[in-house]
Each structure stands twice: as structure tokens, then as C-alpha cells.
Amino acid sequence: MKTNKIALFKLFFLPIFILTGCASSDGVLPTATTYPSITTSVDDYQYLIGPGDSVSIFVWRNPDISGSFIVRPDGKVTTSLVEDVPVSGKTPTMLAREIEQQLSKYINNPRVTVSVNGFNGPLSEQVRVIGEATNPRAINYVEKMTMLDLMIAVGGLTDFAAGNKAKLVRTIDGKQKTYTVKIDDLIREGDILQNIDILPGDILIIPEAWF
């Protein structure tokens, strides 16, 4: 009976100790929900406008000053009445309220609605994959993105990748921390515990295997 209890303890509780104890710098990162980045958690993500986005600004009862505008590389747009409006890094709602304040100098009680097309987002929000991915590149963050979603977006690993030695670089409270992630176990072994959450601004570095 005592032997059976020890076996049950190892089966059910030991994995919990492993998961909670290895999330340190240069350690294995089993889940991202505990580690805030620029967005504090995957549950409160709001899209931020970035250079290259197409921003539609609608001013109620004023179609002549409404329109679509491309966000310049400096993160600003120029409208009919307001020049060089900083928009990068703001949510559409935040931008609408700021434009209303600017337009109140010329229009009585303006009402503004902002929508976004294109969805590039600011560089600080993009997820970068470098190294031995089939198509390494910067990915626009999508709400509730996971490691599996990211691997699909970059076409998976190359034949020369050391997936279990990949590093995830994440900004936490203004400081960068590095974690080991096991992509091989996720893709080739189907270990769903390795399907960690991805946060805006993450950098995934996949090294080459040494044969």
C-alpha cells in the first residue's frame, strides 16, 4: 500500500513541482501566462497601432475631414485639420479620444471613430523568429498566440534545427530574460505542455544542431 501511495504521488504531484520550479532565467519556460511582457497578460491584450497600418478616421457629420490615412514610419499621420498626429503605440479608442480633443478647437463637440486595416503594429509588439526556422521573420502578434501558432506561421523547423535548445527572450518589468523552450518535443513528440503562450515582443532564437 505504501509503495502504491508513493507511485501515485510521483504520478500526480511531481509534474506540478517541475512546472512551477523551472521558470527562471535561462531555465525551461513551461507556460507564459505567469510572465508579463509589454502586454501584462494574454487575457487583456489590446491591439496597438503601428507604422504601415491604414487608419480610418470617421468624424461624425464631417465627411470632408474623414478618411483613411497610412501611418508613416515616424508613427504619425496628417489629417485635414490636424497635422502630424502621433498614433503609433495607441489603441484605436485612445486615438479617437485624442483626435476629438484636437478637433474641439475647430468643431463643436466632435465625435470620432477610428478603425484599423493592415495590422502591422509597432515593432515592440511584433514577435521575431530567427535562426533555423523554415521562414524566419517578424510576426504580427495575434491574441492568445501559442508556440504552435508561431511555428505554423514560420513553416516549422529546418532539418538542421536544434529545437529543444531554442531560446525565448522576453521582456519582464523592463528587463530581458531568457528561457529554454523545447520545440522538438512539441512538434515531433506531440508534447502539448511545450505549447506555451507567446506574448507581444517575444524573440525566439532557434540554433543549428551540431552533428
Description:
It is built from five helices and eleven strands, in the order H-H-E-E-E-E-E-H-E-E-E-H-E-E-H-E. Residues 5-25 and 30-40 have low confidence and may be disordered. It starts with a helix and ends in a 5-residue tail after the last strand. It has helices spanning 2-12, 14-21, 92-103, 147-153, 183-187, and strands at residues 27-28, 54-59, 67-70, 76-77, 85-86, 112-117, 127-131, 138-139, 166-172, 175-181, 203-206. A six-stranded mixed β-sheet has the order 1-10-9-11-7-8, with no helix packed on it. The protein has 211 residues and is α+β, with helices and mostly antiparallel strands. The chain has two domains: 25-44 and 123-206, Outer membrane lipoprotein wza fold like; 54-117, wza like fold. Strand 4 (76-77) and strand 5 form a beta hairpin.
- Oligomerization category of the chains in this entry: single chain
The total beta strand count reads 11
Low-pLDDT runs: 5-25, 30-40
Q: How far apart are the first and last residues' alpha carbons, in Å? A: 47 Å
Supply Rg.
23 Å
* Class inferred from helices and paired strands: alpha+beta
Mean pLDDT: 83
Under CATH, the homologous superfamily of the largest domain reads Outer membrane lipoprotein wza domain like
- How would you characterize the largest beta sheet? 6 strands, mixed
Count of domain modules: 2
Order of helices and strands: HHEEEEEHEEEHEEHE
Count of individual helical segments: 5
Q: What strand order characterises the main sheet?
A: 1-10-9-11-7-8
CATH class descriptor of the largest domain: Alpha Beta
> Approximately how much beta-strand content do the residues carry?
15-25%
Shape: elongated
